[in-house]
Amino acid sequence: MKKKLLFLLLSFISxxxxxxxxxxxxxxxxxxxxxxxxxxxxxxxxxxxxxxxKSTYENKSVTIGLLEFGASAYSSALTRxxxxxxxxxxxxxxxxxxxxxxxxxxxxxxxxxLNAGINWLGVAYQNDKVGGFAFTIRDDFRYSSQFNxxxxxxxxxxxGAPYFDSLKLNNGHSVYNDPQGNAYAANxxxxxxxxxxxxxLLSSVYGNSKISMLYxxxxxxxxxxxxxxxxxxxxxxxxxxxxxxGFGVLDVHESGGKLIAxxxxxxxxxxxxxxxxxxxxxxxxxxxxxxxKSAGTGFGADLGxxxxxxxxxxxxxxxxxxGSITYTTNVYTIKDAYMQSFTSNGINGYNFLTQIPxxxxxxxxxxxxxxxxxxxxxxxxxxxxxxxRIGLSQKLEDDRAHxxxxxxxxxxxxxxxxxxxxxxxGGDFKPIKCIRLSAGFSHGGIFTSTxxxxxxxxxxxxxxxxxxxxxxxRDFISYxxxxxxxxxxxxGFLRFRF
Length: 498
What we know:
Layout: H1 2-16, H2 26-29, E1 62-75, H3 80-87, H4 97-107, E2 112-127, E3 131-146, H5 149-157, E4 166-169, E5 174-176, H6 182-186, E6 191-195, H7 202-206, E7 210-228, E8 233-255, E9 258-265, E10 296-309, E11 313-327, E12 331-335, E13 341-342, H8 352-359, E14 373-376, E15 380-383, E16 387-396, E17 401-410, E18 420-432, E19 435-445, E20 447-452, E21 455-461, E22 467-473, E23 486-497
Antiparallel strand pairs: 1-2, 1-23, 2-3, 3-7, 4-5, 4-6, 6-13, 7-8, 8-9, 8-10, 9-12, 10-11, 11-15, 11-16, 12-14, 16-17, 17-18, 18-19, 19-20, 19-21, 21-22, 22-23
């Protein structure tokens, strides 16, 4: 039950959107740019220097936000309707043999990315003299994968993948597994396993495939201060530090002919590591009630600095996610074993969130639902997905409009980082006092091959911005195009100022 609740949570927030660069805030997702824009607690994780900015609303020094969330799903293998159906369906589908063969072809060498985040609590206090303080608690989940043709077939078709040239039937007889899949389709329900007469090492089969996942919770404390240079220039500097609980991490890729792989998972994931769990010093198969048990802990930090000219022009640079998490629970590495036999019929749907335990479960000499052979480790330390952010913006029309550009560059290949650098131009416009409209253009990040048009609306209610709520999408045009969609949305309804 606990495992179902965990994946139901991840599936739910992924169905509604998360932006590529930690934008759980609806105020940022709609414009695509954030480095010089975000204020109060929303600056944590993006640019803590912005905590030093003066409050936009007079006599409002405290900002509180609850349950801001967002997620995104991108796959060049699926249509928009398939993504909608897949990630709104917790069961993950029930593909038959012909659909599994089609899915294996669809996902061959095609990227898939899923991101989700919830800002459980955000609190900020801003004072012109002492600066700004902020505290947040947030969850982040990031997944990306791209499988070559053989691995894609193994994941969806299991023992029916053409790599396994012999199918063993339940009656003890064996039949030739033709590459067209005729024997696999004709004997559904009567196959016990598949085997390869000329097996290869996993590193050879895996090739250019890759799979990456990161799920962690952060407790963040930030501070920012403005330093006035003269009547024209001022500098803001800020830092936030974070305590991290890692619930799961996975990174599997081939490099120089060698298979590089490690993973660590909370017992809440319910992953079967086979016989390796019996000798692994970090194995934990306990079942506890309540929140998921963390698999590791660590510390991180974000640094930022801004230069402001005439209180209109802003130039900012920040480095985020400096740090690491050390995992000590269910830590495993993948053995480069021969892929000789398989007893799994593959996964049953497109929803990789619900299928993660089946995809990465142990193969265990052909017995198991996954494709990997695991070996235990005592611990492993993984770097956070560090990023460099650069932003430039200008306020216009008596502060009714604010436009800018952002560039975000991944500084390492850690799990959960951007696939490519991210570029965006966008801004806000307030046609009337109580409504702020946002829009922009963006490219890169997790949506590697598309031009996106973010759009959003924020409502500012009450005296001097007492209550703020809104909704935004990272890509408005995805709702109208069918192929290679980048579905995303961010929402928040409990943001208050005092």
